[in-house]
Amino acid sequence: MMIQRFIELGEGYGDIYELRELITSNQQRFMHGFIFVSTNPQGQDVLSIAAAFKPASEGNFMPIYLCREGIPMDSKRLAIFEQTVSSLGHTPIKMEVKHSSVYADKKFYHSHLISVLRLNHYIPPMQ
Q: In terms of pTM, does the model score above 0.90?
């Protein structure tokens, strides 16, 4: 059975550079880049960015790295992510999602996002 799991890198400050490095050093495994748009409790739109990778050659673990809700609209950090994904011939997939504060626990937020990605056929179904 394949395990699909979010791995949070942070909130999109310095960790955006780590995400860029993960994408460029694992180009052969990179599947999709995502931009999740949500509205925080203060009514501001905030962005999360994520990158989904194919499972490693051994094992059934599919990582989805996430920088959660710390990226303002039209920021340099967003441009870095979009440029990295575009350099591999992909277009980041933009989706509106609920803010993580709506969920009692981050596990439920991650499960919701995985379900949305599966339903839209961006990641494989549960096997």
A: yes
